[in-house]
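Page 42, continued from yesterday. The earlier attempt failed because a stray header line got pasted into the input along with the sequence. Redoing it now with the clean sequence only.
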Amino acid sequence: MILDTNALSAIVDGRPEIRRVIEGAPDMAIPVIALGEYRFGVALSNRNALYRQWLLDHLREYRMLAITEETTRRYADVRVELKRDGKPIPSNDIWIAALSREHRMPILSQDRHFDAVAGLQRLTW
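This time it went through. Structure tokens are written below.
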């Protein structure tokens, strides 16, 4: 499964309800977009030392999903579909949706706007 930024935050914060969802997941990946959003939040946080340490200790446990040329095609497809349907979502989330389609992986997120993307499976906690 692909972790959206709010899922990554919940994992780092040790929220028990998300532990039940990710327990036994065979593959968890973090899009570089979500990692960038998370690092931005960490930089503004009062607990940034704790969060930076978590990243140092645990980030290697997750597969990183980079943007590729193929991802750009998927991004364009998703963005055109959403524009045509009159259902825009934040640009960073279009990239995450594109990665989900490219890798055929569900997204773990509390953001319901992912539900507007055809063929995407959103998991939540």
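Notes: The beta strands are 2-3, 29-31, 63-65, 107-108, 122-123.
Reminder to self: strip header lines before submitting.
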